[in-house]
Amino acid sequence: xxxxxxxWLVGAGPGDIGLFTLKGLQxxxxxxxxVYDSLVGQGVLSRIPxxxxxxxxxxxxxxxxxxxxxxxEVLLEEAKKGNRVVRLKGGDPFLFGxxxxxxxxxxxxxxxxxIVPGVTSPIAVPAYNGIPVTHRDFTSSLHIITGHKxxxxxxxxxxxxxxxxRGTLVFLMGVSALGDICQALLQxxxxxxxxxxxxxxxxxxxxxxxxATVSTLEEEVKRQGIQTPAIIVVGKVCALADEFAWYxxxxxxxxxxxxxxxxxxxxxxxxxxxxLGAEVLELPAIRTAPLKDQSKLYHxxxxxxxxxxxxxxxxxxxxxxxxEMKKTKTDVRKMRDVKIAAIGKGTQKAxxxxxxxxxxxxxxxxxxxxxxxxxxxxxxGEHILIPRAAMGNQEIIKALSEKSDIVLHDIPTYDTFYESxxxxxxxxxxxxxxxxxxxxxSASTVRGFVQATPGLDxxxxxxxxxxxxxxxxxxxxxxxxxxxxxxTIDSVLDLVxxxxxKTARKQEVQ
Length: 510
Description:
Helix content is about 35%, strand content about 20%. The strands form 3 sheets. The chain has a 9-stranded mixed β-sheet, with helices on both faces. Strands 3-2-4-1-5 form a 5-stranded parallel β-sheet, sandwiched between helices. The protein has a 5-stranded mixed β-sheet with strand order 6-7-10-8-9, sandwiched between helices. The protein is elongated, with a radius of gyration of 28 Å.
């Protein structure tokens, strides 16, 4: 019997990856094939596993990459091959997402499926703009209507019935027909001064709102400009937009930050940026993998108690070191008389998670300072083990080598690979001015970013760098570089806030 695959219809939410559901993320991470829409946020797309095959079916108003019937067939074909197929859709699959149509063929062919609902834009986008879609003092009902219609055709909507509800009306996909919608509501008896709003790219850094009335909204849109996707909200609750505004008050609202990181590491930086209001595009720039031949490290394990120091230069170095200790059944008690050095806070945290507290963390978190401070603590004749990346920089070695009687065991334990993200075009996003700044936490992530963006004019990249070596790597490519005062995550966050404020001041002058 052939192994039947399965299809999951997954709602990706309105854009902000923080609004992507836990079940949606768990399902996506196990996908063999991902069939996705243009309206899926980049943050969600960045979480597609590298092993999954991706099929872009487009589907944005009047720009269809693939007809709906063909999409239905693709889902069927991929499931029949035995794949775990995730149909990733912006918003919710069953709210004007044509999810029902996609299920019909699957049901007919006996293909198993599941639905993972998504946070929907008619509620989330107004919320991010300070508009509650219901409020006891204003309305007791909410109505969601598709504003899409064929060009030249009349609306098949009972506008008079909508007006009689006295509820909040949310029109999706109606930007191009804004004038027709407002006119139809007025003709159906709606008051001219009824508050109305149009909300652009809600829950993202490009979020923008225009609040007016049903009779003036079209005119205001012509004056101020709006981009799709956007939703139209009509109702008394729109008058609360300024009073209840919250997103734009966050320090990094409206700022889109590219964060590069090793694939294996969860980015604390990205989470902290999101708390401050930034839209974060988090992309793995490098991937690390333990060396297949660890014979040099295993030899060091045999004489672990003869070292005076073990110096760790990255969280990955810590992780690989202790994983290999476990494989070889090397008892950690062999390190009882060994002192430990850590290059910075991230490495310190990785050690503390394993019950080890560093004896040395340099004042400046880089290899040169670590080497100098460690050298200063050595009387002479010490044996120092440095388990680290095969392509690690030489600053720590140079600094330690200044003391000729120190014996260094510089042992490569893992390799670094640069990788690109096929689903997201970083180069295009930067050239279009969508990325406010890029955050780099190591020289290797700078190199990984460059490898993933061939042909990019790097003078267009505003780089927030954690330290000297990282800045030097970005300077080599002509980036507009800025360095944090301290080599810590919090100091980099302060730097990003400063860069946003600097941009705002420049725009005010212009």
